[in-house]
Amino acid sequence: MDDGRSILSSVVASQLATHARYGGVVPELASREHLRAIVPVVRLALEEAKSGYSDLSAIAATIGPGLVGSLLVGLTFAKSLSFARGIPLIGVNHIEGHIHAAILDAAVEFPAVALIVSGGHTHLFEVNPGFSYRLIGKTRDDAAGEAFDKVGKLLGFGYPGGPVIDQLAPYGNPNAVKFTLAKMKGNTLDFSFSGLKTAVLRWTQARDLTAETQARKELLAAHPQPSIEEWLAVTPQTTRDVLASFQRTVIEELLRRAAAAAESIAARALIISGGVACNSGLRAAARDLHLPYPIYFPSPGLSTDNAAMIAAAAFPKLKRGEFTSLNAAASANLTLA
Fold this sequence. Notes:
Layout: H1 16-20, H2 27-48, E1 59-64, H3 68-85, E2 89-93, H4 94-102, E3 112-117, E4 122-128, E5 132-138, H5 144-154, H6 162-168, H7 194-205, H8 210-222, H9 228-233, H10 237-264, E6 270-273, H11 280-287, E7 295-296, H12 300-303, H13 307-320
Parallel strand pairs: 1-2, 3-6, 6-7
Antiparallel strand pairs: 3-4, 4-5
């Protein structure tokens, strides 16, 4: 990345195929895949940027939060490169990277609210000038992306289930199944998705979905990436309706709390980022809100985890001379402040 905005190259090594067979991310396998991929990925990124190690002014790496084994691979590689080339190391909070992914090409006015929503995170942050942060809401149980994936797995759509649910939701009636919105005691800006996930489970238990669920599992075994037509052929209308209703409820929970958070701090912008920011239903619903301030989404390619967003978040630190010690440790539960 050059000047904090120009992405010279962005290379992503996906592990979806590795973890799909297990129905979710396996930490040990994730670490091994990172170790296998990191050298060729960095080499290819430099080639595509038409650059070499001698052109680098600094190297950034995610220092947390996340799976500690995977964090260690990236951070150790970055430390080695920093030491060998004599260039600064900049440790970046993964969540801060997602915020910068959404505002790479935008002149955002502050204060802003950032909704970070993915398989591991559902957080609301107040973002102030100079990129200082205050946590104002978070999930008390499942992250929104985790709820999507668990419902997808429950109904035989495999892992990750979120993208398939998003594909099928337009073919269902979003008002067919009435799910109860979560009522939070204490901080009303917090989220909870475990009750919604359980409600879908109870819905499936009240019906005999064994045959159709098995049909979807067999389709997935025969075709790792079924087309929308193939999914529709093994998904009756009632199931399409519950998927649409589930997605509508998740989106409503996300946006009503994000809007409430923005109102509470008189925000001048709303940032929505993370893997679930790819969800077409979420993007459409956000456009329909007609809020008195702009909403910023990252491009789909920058919504899911990527290194470009970490480089973007590192640039302000580079300008301020905020460097990370080579003794710094990866932190699986790192907070953003």
